[in-house]
Amino acid sequence: MKRRRLGKELTVSAVGLGCMGMSEFYGTGDERESIAVIHRAIELGVTLLDTADMYGPFTNETLVGRAIRDRRDKVVLATKFGNVRGSDGAWLGVDGTPDYVRRACDASLRRLGVDHIDLYYQHRVDKTVPIEATVGAMAELVKAGKVRYLGLSEAGPETIRRAHAVHPIAALQTELSLWTRDAEVTIIPTVRELGIGFVAYSPLGRGFLAGRFRGPEDFTADDYRKNHPRFQGANLARNLTLLDRVSALATAKGVKPAQLALAWVLAKGEDLVPIPGTKRLRYLDDNVAAVGVELSDEELRRLDEAAPVGATAGARYPERALHALDW
User: What is the per-residue pLDDT for 26?
Assistant: First the structure.
């Protein structure tokens, strides 16, 4: 497994593993297989595991903690705070107050069963709290030895700059894929200027770029993606055209569409680390193998033509979730 650096010091595998779907949002999970996926990922050299307190809610951290209990030294453990949910799953808003930061960290440490978190993200920016106050509290966690490195998720350029001035930010996590290229315009240039790494979540477009979903019937009843604007009606029809273009390029390359999509993210720079999520062993090996897919300048040009910035139809989140973004 190749390695990449986030920020100035944190070294991780070139591809990480997103664990969210093991517990929620993408249909019913199987805890036994999910743990097997995490163990297999570690065997393949994947070190960066990504979770959050809200996934489940709360159960995903417990699952990840159980999976790494006897192999903690082999992983870079990343989790997040800020999206507040009730035990019944209710959405309670965003909280970036210093007191909440401290309480959320202690709760995550207990669920994960560890004495420190390697990379601690603010999941969403609390627009009612100065970012300096939130990051200041996060910095206190570093001083206390509870956290090693700090991160932000879905933060805008101004917020990133202000946060980084309080304490070094190692990584900015934001959606990036062939069907979500918005971050290329202002976010990636900003983090590169500041020496911050970029962690790309949903690098397979929530599974769409793997070619598995072509209609509502492909989703289980408890899969939230069927309510996602990009998977509905005329938007889906237009996006399938984009997928077909990418799939044709993958066939010409002799790789799977998902591998081509991941290779595209990896080719964006050594400071970018995609974290494709999967809860199935059969997809994990393919995702990891994408690290070895090299793309020529001509192949990258064709992908840019097949899926240019702004080509995807539909917002990348439902309306309520869009309001939580900082840019």
Answer: 84
Phi, psi of 201, rounded to the nearest 5 degrees: -95, 160
CA–CA separation, 158 and 52 (whole Å)? 24
Nearest Cα neighbor of 80 from 191, 11, 193, 100 is 100
For the chain, give the mean pLDDT. Answer: 96
Cβ atoms of 171 and 10 closer than 8 Å? yes
pLDDT band at 244 (very low <50, low <70, confident <90, very high): very high
Tens digits of residue pLDDT in 33-56: 999 999 999 999 999 999 999 999
- Catalytic residue annotation: 55
Q: How far apart are CA 219 and CA 142, in angstroms?
A: 41
Long-range contacts of 232-239 (CB under 8 A, 24+ apart): 232/314, 234/313, 235/313, 235/314, 236/313, 238/313, 239/179, 239/208, 239/312, 239/313, 239/314
* Burial status of residue 8 (CB atoms within 10 A of its CB: 0-12, 13-18, 19 or more): exposed
Q: For position 142, what pLDDT does the model report?
A: 98
Whole-structure pTM value: 0.96
